[in-house]
Design goal:
Blueprint: E1 5-6, H1 16-28, E2 33-36, H2 47-57, E3 62-65, E4 68-69, H3 75-88, E5 93-94, E6 97-98, H4 102-108, H5 116-131, E7 137-138, E8 143-144, E9 148-149, E10 157-162, H6 171-182, E11 186-191, H7 195-204, H8 211-228, H9 234-245, H10 254-266
Parallel strand pairs: 1-2, 2-3, 3-5, 4-6, 10-11
Antiparallel strand pairs: 7-8, 9-11
C-alpha cells in the first residue's frame, strides 16, 4: 500500500518556508506522494505554484492535485501548467481535476455550472489532445484546433508551411498531418503570412511572391523548432549549413518579422 501526505496549502497562516520544509521532509520520509487541494473561498496557496516550489526541493516523492477546479481554468492554460509541473518534477506529477459545486461556481464566482458532466467529458478530451498528440476536437462546449502536434516518442517533425490561398486550417493538410502523427511524426502547421498580410495580399497579390520574406520566416520557424527539441544539437548545425548554402537575398523588415513571431506564438496551440 502506498501512503501519501497532503501539503498544507489551505491552512491559514502557513508560511512559504514551512511548505518547502514540509515537502523536503515528505521526500525524505516514507510517503509516496505529496498532494494539494484547490480552494477559492478560503485562504490558500494556488496549487500549481505550490507544487512548483515542491518540485524544486524534492527528488523522489510524486506530486498530485487533489483536485484542481477545472472550469476555473482555460483548457490550454491548465494543460500548460500540468505539463510544466510534470517537466519540473522529472515526470512525477499526477493531475486530478474536478468540477466544484454550484455554491462556489455560481453563488460566489458568478459562473454557470450547466451540464457539468458533459462539460468535464469534453474538457478531458481537450486536455488529452493538449498533453498528447494534439488531436482536434469539436463538441458542444469546446472547439479546439491545434497547430503543433507532438505524438509520444515522436521520431521527427514535419513543418507544413503555408503561403497564400491555403492555410493551417486546410482540411487536406490537416488530414495529411494526422496521418503523419499516427506514423509517429510530430507536425507543425504554419502560416507564413499574418492575418493582416493575408488580407492585403488578397488585394495586391504581392506578398505571396516575396521570396526573401517567406524564406526568412520559414528559417525562423525551423530554428525555433530545433531550439525547442530535446537531445543533441545536430539539427542546429544542419540548419546553419542550410542558411549558408541558401542565403536569403534580403532580411525581412524588423517590424514585419516581429509581427510574424507574435503570430507564430499565438497559434502554437
Amino acid at each position: 500500500m502506498n501512503i501519501g501526505v497532503g501539503l498544507p496549502t489551505s491552512t491559514a497562516g502557513i508560511s512559504g518556508q514551512l511548505l518547502v520544509d514540509w515537502a523536503r521532509r515528505a521526500d525524505a520520509g516514507p510517503f509516496s506522494s505529496l498532494g494539494v487541494v484547490d480552494r477559492v473561498a478560503y485562504q490558500n496557496y494556488e496549487p500549481f505554484t505550490a507544487l512548483g516550489a515542491a518540485a524544486a526541493v524534492t527528488q523522489r516523492v510524486r506530486l498530485a492535485t487533489m483536485v484542481v477546479i477545472a472550469p476555473l481554468r482555460n483548457t490550454a492554460i491548465l494543460a500548460k501548467q500540468a505539463a510544466s509541473i510534470h517537466a519540473l518534477s522529472g515526470g512525477r506529477f499526477t493531475l486530478g481535476i474536478g468540477v466544484s459545486h454550484r455554491a462556489t461556481m455560481e453563488a460566489m464566482l458568478g459562473l454557470t455550472l450547466d451540464e457539468p458532466l458533459a462539460v468535464m467529458r469534453e474538457y478531458v478530451a481537450v486536455l488529452r489532445g493538449a498533453l498528447g498528440a494534439g488531436a482536434d476536437f469539436e463538441g458542444r462546449h469546446f472547439r479546439v484546433r491545434w497547430s503543433l502536434a507532438l505524438p509520444e516518442h515522436a521520431r521527427g517533425l514535419v513543418v507544413f508551411a503555408h503561403g497564400s490561398g491555403s492555410s493551417r486550417w486546410s482540411t487536406r493538410n490537416r488530414f495529411v498531418a494526422e496521418s503523419l502523427q499516427r506514423a509517429g511524426l510530430a507536425t507543425l502547421l504554419l502560416d507564413l503570412l499574418t492575418p493582416g498580410e493575408e488580407r492585403r495580399d488578397a488585394i495586391s497579390g504581392h506578398i505571396r511572391f516575396d521570396i526573401g520574406l517567406l524564406a526568412a520566416r520559414l528559417i525562423a520557424a525551423t530554428v525555433w523548432a530545433a531550439s525547442e527539441a530535446e537531445g543533441p544539437q545536430e539539427p542546429r548545425r544542419q540548419i546553419t549549413s542550410v542558411k549558408k548554402k541558401f542565403p536569403v537575398s534580403r532580411p525581412a523588415p524588423s517590424a514585419r518579422f516581429h509581427d510574424f513571431i507574435i503570430h507564430v506564438r499565438r497559434t502554437r496551440l
